[in-house]
């Protein structure tokens, strides 16, 4: 299984853990909630779903077939297939969610992992965030060294492109520093029934840094070394 298809399977399992959905709903959520999947098509999604069903992690359910079974071939109306996470699928997703190896903080996989931080334990979040920061700091050091060696041979536009790439990585490092500090200080909140913020507990969503500059990670910001 390729890394890209593995990311898609992870995201599909995570979304279906929230609630059962049919294929159109899933694709919409992948596009809107997880922007890294904007380029995915139904031709990519449905083979993924079939694989997850074959593995026993999902089941297919009919969501209201036409009342007149004979009318379906004439009208073209077919019952929608809803995909539901099985107990084995939930267990598999939780296992994936607990992993903190290098894949967890590579560009696209990190964005998918971050999207499900609300379902991730605090210690795992910390390891993933620190791993991502370490990886980007290594990348930044290499970029600076490369720029120092080649600065004199670059034209103005290529030099600006190199600087832009470095600034993008530096920006994400600053954003990660804020997230890590929030995790360490235990700053969390939840919203009460009246909409007012309340102090949360260790298992609830975090009060993450909110700024225009620091938003959800986008792999397009990263410049390959």
From TrEMBL:
Recorded coiled-coil stretches: 126-167
Q: Where is the composition biased (Polar residues)?
A: 193-202
Q: Write out the ranges of the annotated region (Disordered).
A: 182-225
Pfam families per record: PadR (PF03551)
Compositional bias, Basic and acidic residues, is annotated for 203-219
The entry's keywords: Coiled coil
**Which domain of life does the UniProt lineage start with?**
Bacteria
Question: Which InterPro entries is this protein grouped with?
Answer: Metal_resp_DNA-bind_regulator, Tscrpt_reg_PadR_N, WH-like_DNA-bd_sf, WH_DNA-bd_sf
* Statement: the UniProt record of this protein carries the keyword Coiled coil: yes
Ranges for domain Transcription regulator PadR N-terminal? 12-94
**Membrane-spanning parts:** none
Kindly give the PANTHER family that the UniProt entry links to this protein: CONSERVED PROTEIN (PTHR33169:SF26), PADR-FAMILY TRANSCRIPTIONAL REGULATOR (PTHR33169)
Q: Could you identify this protein by its name?
A: PadR family transcriptional regulator
Species source reads: Streptomyces odorifer
């Amino acid at each position: 299984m390729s890394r890209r298809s593995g990311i898609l399977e992870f995201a599909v399992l995570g979304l279906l853990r929230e609630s059962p959905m049919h294929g159109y709903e899933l694709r919409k959520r992948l596009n809107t909630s997880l922007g890294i999947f904007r380029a995915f098509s139904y031709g990519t999604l449905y083979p993924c779903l079939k694989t997850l069903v074959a593995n026993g992690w999902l089941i297919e359910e009919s969501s209201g077939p036409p009342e007149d079974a004979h009318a379906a071939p004439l009208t073209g109306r077919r019952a929608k297939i809803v995909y539901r996470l099985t107990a084995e699928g939930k267990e598999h997703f939780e296992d994936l969610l607990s992993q903190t190896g290098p894949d967890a903080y590579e560009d696209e996989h990190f964005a998918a992992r971050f999207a499900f931080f609300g379902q991730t334990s605090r210690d795992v979040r910390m390891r993933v965030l620190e791993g991502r920061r370490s990886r980007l700091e290594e990348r930044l050091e290499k970029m600076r060294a490369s720029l120092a060696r080649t600065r004199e041979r670059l034209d103005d536009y290529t030099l600006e492109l190199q600087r832009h790439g470095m600034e993008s990585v530096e920006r994400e490092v600053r954003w990660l520093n804020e997230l890590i500090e929030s995790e360490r200080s235990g700053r969390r909140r939840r919203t009460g029934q009246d909409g007012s913020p309340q102090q949360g507990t260790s298992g609830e969503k975090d009060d993450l840094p909110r700024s225009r500059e620091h938003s959800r990670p986008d792999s397009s910001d990263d410049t390959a070394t």
